[in-house]
Request: fold
Amino acid sequence: MTGETIELNHRIEGPEDAPVLVTANSLGTTLAMWDAQVPAFRERFRLVRYDHRGQGGSPVPPGPYTMDDLGGDVLALMGRLGIERFSFCGLSIGGMVGMWLGSEAPERVERLVLLCTAARFDPPDAWEARARAVRAGGVGAIADAVLERWFTPAFREQRTDVLEWAGGMLRSSPPEGYAGCCEAIRDADLRPRLGAISAPTLVIAGAEDPAAPVDRAETIRDGIPDSRLAVIERAAHIANVERPDEVTGEILDHLGPLRKGG
Reply:
C-alpha cells in the first residue's frame, strides 16, 4: 500500500450538465473495455472512464495495492474534477472498488452497478501465485488462461477479432501494476461492508462466468439493501464485451432518469 492517492488516467465525455457516471475496468484491461457502451452512456451522462493505478495509462507505483488505495484514488479524482455525487459502474476489480465506494462514501454514490464481481475472491493463495508469476514472467505468462475465463468458448471461437483486441490489452498491462492489483484482490473482503451500501444497486452476473460465478453475485445482492440481480445468458467474465446490448440495456434501465447531481 502506498498510502497516497495518484492521478489516474481518465477520459471525460458527454454533456457537462448531465448526471455523472464513472466506469471502472477489470484487472488487465483499460478504460477501452467500455467502448461498446460509450455511445449510449455519453448521450445521457457526463461519462468519466478511468484506469486503476497500475493499469492502462495510469501511474504504476510499486505494489502491493489495497482496496483503500484503489477507492481512495477515485475519490481523489472526483475531488480534482469537482464532482460531488456520481453513479458508479465497475466490473470485477472495478466492482470491488464500487462496493468500497458505496460503503465508504455513501453520500457520494448515487447508484451502483456491480458487474461480474465478488465481495471476496477466494482463494487468496491463487492471487498470490498470480502476482508472483506476473512479476517473474510478465502478464504474458498468464494471459492465455485469463482469456479462457473472460469469454465463453463459443465466443472465443467466433469472435477472434475481439479475442485479439482483448488479449492485446491484457498483455500490455504493466507487470508490477497487474501484480499490485492482484494483491489488492487477495486481501479484500468486502462482505462486511455490503450492509452499509445505501445506493440503489444492480448486480450483473454472466451465466457462464468461471471467475465470478452467479452465486457470488447472489451473495452481493443478498447483502445490499435495495439491490437486484440480472443474469446475462451466454456470457462469461467480460460480459459487457461479450453481450454488449444486453448489458448496456440493463445498466441504462437501472440508472434510469437521473436528475442532475451536485
